[in-house]
User: Which sequence fits this backbone?
């Protein structure tokens, strides 16, 4: 049979389903009785009870007191049952023999009483063990390294028990375990640093280890002793979860034999109620460990667990504190920046350090910023699309991205591991951290891919080989730990809070803007009414005065009156122009495909009064149509052509050229050129400002606002306007608009 | 041609009032010019209420209505006139200092017959008033329904 077929045939979870807590038998190094009621009537007994205890109980009739003579045990059981202790431990003498007795409560009010032969010597009593235990505990409490703790505990347990080999074994999240401490003689091989697959210790065995902390198999070659029950109590097999004599699975016994061990003991290391590891003891030959000594080992195991737990917590807290300070640094930077991603880039080492990553990237909308060793931009975007599509959780972490996203295999040198957090509820915004592939060599105890050694007589047998099998782990990064995930989660909450706060600030800012816009509107409304009227009145009264008294005024007075009128008229125009200008900022654009030739014709018609009596040489060529608001663009043309007319007043002929084309950037460009007075290019930047004039008012009239209005109109179309010119050489004004077919 | 009915001028600014009256005088119109100084007074006159209970019956040839008025402003007066089935047919010309588009839009929505932004230059202002006076005071035939005695 080839290996491939083997793997197909053997159901590796068969072990997980074996009901090992109800084996129906015990190991032969002790006897078990199950008693009920105040009379302590025996209803269960192991088949060896008569031989072991010297009295053959009749099930359903014989009382415990009839087996164990002095009545003290019975009294103790009654007191213990009234209390809440889980177990009771006593020494009793039955005939010639001295026994250690341990009791615990079973199902259906049955009390299980287990007997083991007590050792002859007094060396194993707790009194004798106490000084050594205290010394050991002090030793453990002085250690601050996990490895040192493990090897010390292994040495201590071996000293206490005399096993050939003691291992400290630590479980992973996936159930596999690694030997992190060992003490041994030469009878058994070294297992230190070996990794055992999860299937070696099935799930329900791990659960039993959690519930019942110590377990012993004095002789792997034992013959199981069946349990007998009174018919009223024998319908369900007896639950031996808490039994010290519980018979173990034949698979486990075989596993032990394959390992070359004939006796074993284990003590569970529980941290915060979880099975963290085991103290596993092995002996080449059969070996018994008295109950008290097992109790002492259990105590050591618990001290080890407490110390180990504290150590792990301290390490974790240390790491958390370090990450927290990085986080604080980033957050205080974020408080100073408008955009949180800028803060990340300001301290990239803190950003990456927060998750102990080699590279990090942030995506906000379409913008991607990266720091350190990252995949290519398109690859990062691919990861983000994948996160989006698979609706990955808000905090997503993997140390094996290619397992989720096969195309990631192309860049595992940068991102075999990814930690990603979403930072917006609405947009695809992520912060990502990357870790490269970390090729590790794992020393498996045997090939974990074929834990089954052979299949015969339809029963699963454990593997026979414990030879070191080296595995190269590829396509994986170092895993993300809890502290790092927690730091990422906290950063996410902080960033979201910041983004939200900024959104609120923007909203209130926009409220404020709207308010001030309204105020401005009310202001210009009132100007349009109240400032305009007095100018009109001045002009009106001056006119009436001229009509009535004009003839009687001397020329100088007539000139003053005329000047009053002119000044008031121009002030009134100024108000009108200003209002028009402010209006432009508020009015909405109504764009449509616009015939620019038509607009030029209309503008020229508007300006006709300016051309009276002048010799003008018009050079107007066909213009490309624009996507624009015609009434606004007409105003631009009136302004520009009007300027051209105005500033070429002294020329004969005045040459005014209007042309247009589609520029290289696809925008339509229009030009109005004249041969007028021109301007000094040094002032080109001032041309388009409000009230900027380059000529004295008596040379050329106007309020100086026409070009500012033109610029505002062009810019509202997302176009540009600019001018070229030289003093005495004419001027050219260019502006761009989106073309009509865009 | 109908009898020469009065022109109702509603204007609160004394200067505008004086200038408008001067302009109308130049037209040498035979129409009587009735002046009211705020919106409420104008409505009272139109509806023969309050101080005008005893005035001779009859609608004006035109109402020249300033936009900004005390009590009821021009738009409110316009709304009442155009919303009233008896007054609806009276021509209303809005006279205003404002070049605000929204006033213009609102006036037309309310059914104004003409909208004149008072020009800064008196000559233009004068011409505008003259045109208005002549058109609405003399030339414009009132609808038959309004021509009741």
Assistant:
């Amino acid at each position: 049979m080839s290996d491939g077929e083997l793997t197909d045939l053997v159901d590796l979870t068969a072990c997980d389903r074996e009901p090992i807590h109800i084996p129906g038998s015990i190991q032969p190094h002790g006897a078990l009785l199950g008693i009920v009621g105040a009379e302590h009537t025996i209803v269960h007994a192991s088949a060896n009870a008569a031989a072991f205890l010297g009295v053959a109980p009749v099930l359903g009739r014989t009382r415990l007191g009839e087996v164990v003579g002095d009545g003290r045990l019975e009294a103790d059981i009654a007191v213990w049952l009234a209390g809440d202790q889980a177990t009771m431990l006593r020494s009793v003498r039955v005939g010639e023999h001295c026994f250690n007795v341990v009791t615990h409560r079973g199902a259906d009010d049955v009390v299980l009483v287990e007997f083991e032969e007590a050792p002859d010597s007094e060396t194993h009593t707790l009194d004798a063990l106490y000084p050594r235990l205290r010394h050991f505990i002090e030793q453990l409490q002085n250690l601050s390294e996990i490895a040192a703790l493990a090897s010390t505990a292994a040495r201590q347990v071996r000293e206490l028990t005399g096993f050939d080999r003691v291992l400290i074994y630590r479980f992973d999240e996936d159930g596999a375990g690694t030997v992190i401490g060992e003490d041994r003689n030469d009878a058994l091989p070294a297992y230190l640093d070996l990794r055992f697959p999860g299937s070696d210790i099935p799930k329900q065995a791990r659960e039993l280890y959690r519930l019942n902390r110590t377990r012993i198999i004095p002789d792997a070659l034992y013959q199981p002793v069946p349990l007998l029950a009174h018919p009223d109590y024998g319908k369900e097999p007896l639950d031996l979860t808490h039994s010290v004599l519980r018979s173990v699975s034949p698979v486990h016994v075989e596993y032990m034999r394959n390992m070359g061990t004939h006796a074993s003991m284990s003590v569970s290391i529980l941290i915060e109620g979880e099975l963290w590891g085991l103290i596993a003891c092995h002996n080449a030959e059969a070996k018994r460990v008295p109950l008290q000594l097992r109790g002492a080992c259990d105590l050591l195991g618990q001290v080890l667990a407490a110390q180990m737990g504290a150590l792990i917590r301290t390490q974790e807290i240390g790491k958390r504190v370090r990450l927290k300070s990085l986080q604080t640094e980033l957050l205080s930077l974020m408080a100073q920046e408008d955009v949180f991603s800028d803060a990340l880039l300001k301290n990239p080492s803190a950003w990456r350090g927060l998750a102990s990553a080699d590279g990090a990237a942030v995506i906000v909308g379409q913008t991607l910023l990266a720091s350190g060793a990252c995949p290519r931009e398109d690859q990062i975007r691919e990861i983000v699309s994948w996160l989006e599509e698979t609706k990955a959780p808000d905090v997503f972490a993997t140390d094996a991205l290619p397992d989720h996203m096969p195309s990631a295999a192309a860049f595992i040198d940068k991102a075999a591991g990814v930690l990603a957090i979403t930072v917006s509820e609405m947009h695809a915004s992520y912060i990502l951290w990357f870790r490269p592939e970390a090729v590790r060599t794992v020393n498996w105890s045997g090939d974990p891919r074929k834990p089954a050694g052979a299949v015969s007589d339809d029963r699963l047998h454990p593997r026979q080989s414990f030879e070191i099998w080296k595995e190269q782990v590829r396509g994986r990064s170092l895993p993300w730990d809890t502290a790092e995930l927690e730091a990422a989660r906290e950063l996410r909450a902080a960033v979201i809070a910041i983004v939200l706060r900024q959104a609120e600030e923007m909203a209130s800012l926009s409220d404020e803007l709207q308010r001030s816009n309204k105020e401005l509107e009310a202001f210009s409304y009132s100007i349009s009414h109240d400032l305009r009227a007095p100018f009109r009145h001045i002009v009106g009264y001056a006119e009436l005065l001229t009509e009535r008294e004009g003839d009687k005024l001397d020329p100088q007075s007539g000139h003053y009156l005329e000047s009053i009128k002119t000044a008031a008229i121009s002030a009134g125009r100024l108000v009108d122009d200003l209002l028009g200008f402010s209006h432009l900022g508020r009015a909405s654009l109504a764009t449509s495909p616009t015939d620019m030739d038509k607009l030029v014709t209309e503008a020229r018609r508007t300006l006709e009064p300016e051309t009276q009596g002048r010799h003008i040489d018009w050079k107007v060529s066909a213009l490309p149509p624009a996507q624009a608001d015609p009434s606004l663009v007409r105003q631009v043309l009136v302004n520009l052509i009007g300027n051209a007319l105005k500033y070429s007043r002294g020329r004969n002929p005045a040459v005014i050229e209007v042309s247009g084309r589609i520029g290289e950037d696809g925008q339509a460009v229009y030009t109005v050129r004249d041969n007028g007075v021109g301007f000094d290019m040094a002032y080109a930047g001032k041309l388009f400002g409000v009230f900027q004039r380059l000529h004295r008012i008596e040379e050329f009239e106007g309020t100086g606002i026409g070009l500012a209005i033109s610029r505002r109109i062009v810019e509202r179309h997302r176009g540009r306007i600019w001018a070229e010119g030289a003093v005495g050489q004419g001027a050219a004004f260019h502006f761009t608009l989106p073309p009509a077919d865009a | 041609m109908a009898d020469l009915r009065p022109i109702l001028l509603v204007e609160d600014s004394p200067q505008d009032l004086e200038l408008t009256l001067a302009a109308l005088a130049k037209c040498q119109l035979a129409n009587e010019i009735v002046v009211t100084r705020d919106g409420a007074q104008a409505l009272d006159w139109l509806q023969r209420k309050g101080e005008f209970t005893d005035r001779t019956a009859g609608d004006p040839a035109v109402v020249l209505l300033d936009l900004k008025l005390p009590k009821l402003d021009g738009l409110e007066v316009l709304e009442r006139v155009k919303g009233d089935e008896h007054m609806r047919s009276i021509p209303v010309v809005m006279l205003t200092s404002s070049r605000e588009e929204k006033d213009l839009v609102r006036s037309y929505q309310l059914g104004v017959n003409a909208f004149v932004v008072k020009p800064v230059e008196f000559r233009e202002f004068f011409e505008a008033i003259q045109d208005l006076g002549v058109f609405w005071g003399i030339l414009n035939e009132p609808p038959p329904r309004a021509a009741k005695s």
Summary: Chain B has one domain: 7-140. Helices of chain B lie at 14-27, 39-47, 74-82, 101-109, 122-139. The domain at 7-140 of chain B is CATH 3.40.50.2300 (Rossmann fold).
